[in-house]
Amino acid sequence: xxxxxxxxxxxALGLLGNFLACSRQSSxxxxxxxxxxxxxxxxxGATFPSPLYKKWFATxxxxxxxTAITYDSVGSGEGMRRFVGRNVTDEDKVDFGASxxxxxxxxxxxxxxxxxxVPVTAGGVVLAYNLPDVTQDLKLSRRAYTGIFxxxxxxxxxxxxxxxxxxxxxPKLTLVTVVRQDSSGTTFAFTKHLDAISEKWRSQYGPSTxxxxxxxxxxxxxxxxxxxxxxxxxxxxxxxxxxxxxxYGLRTALLENxxxxxxxPTEENLRAALASAQMPENxxxxxxxxxxxxxxxxxxxxxxxxxxxxxxxAKARALRxxxxxALGDGQHYAADLxxxxxxPEVAEKAQAALQTVQP
Length: 359
What we know:
Elements: H1 3-28, E1 39-45, H2 50-63, E2 67-73, H3 76-84, E3 96-99, H4 105-108, E4 115-129, E5 139-140, H5 142-149, H6 159-163, E6 176-180, H7 185-197, H8 199-204, E7 217-220, H9 222-232, E8 236-241, H10 242-247, E9 251-252, E10 254-256, E11 262-263, H11 267-274, E12 299-307, H12 313-327, H13 344-354
Parallel strand pairs: 1-2, 1-3, 5-10, 6-7, 6-8
Antiparallel strand pairs: 3-12, 4-8, 4-9, 4-12, 10-11
């Protein structure tokens, strides 16, 4: 089979995985009916935190049957579009959005009711790979993984990869990146990091939710789509939320951090990455290249987007109650699903911001 045919076959598998993922998503997120005397809260957005959100919403609904919640895991870009209301049908309108890329000022200006951005959890973006014959842990230097996603490193036995992996027999195998085809907060977090560490990336691409990726790339929709495609693609490497790599049994590379150490995406290393974050008044903060010697280099907060003046008193109260619980008791579910509970000082600021949501 030629390389081109192999790519087409793998892409077909990825599209099938995406179709099945979408089918599962649709069946898992039916349009719920408003309970008698209750409220229906509809949200959409980021795939990165969606496993945690689904756990939160299911748990909360069990204890609060008068509050029905739906969440469409459609990607940060689509979630922001539905929340801001650009060319949105009545069916797609949402009460809250979710994004791993905080809204910028020009987007906020398009929401006349005002916007409250509430960080609710955090996690790591990992580089997962599919090399069945490499049994040792793979290390990727900053120069190596930047070169991979710039399309400059084309084979797994490239000297830049080999230099960080002495004694590891790297295959003479074409390297293919697996990337997002949809507007994505995970893409934003990853490219925000590349922008911080690579002048070449910064000059050619910068941080973005959607990238025209160079080199040999296969594209998939959502974190689940990337992870599913990677699981079938020998020679592939892609960026994906840690929880999805874990769920699909994908191996993840140790990445070189700013201090020159190769670190794994453990809870401790991700906490170290977030420790330096100084949360501003608008709660929009990024940690593109954490300085701690123990920090995993790619970590991000993720936000719930709410209208400051909702216009529906019952829904405004229900939204405040739901996410107040998520910022409190809900944080206990984060670690088991591969996410990082918010630092106490961040959770306190998030709770204060949440209380500014008005009926």
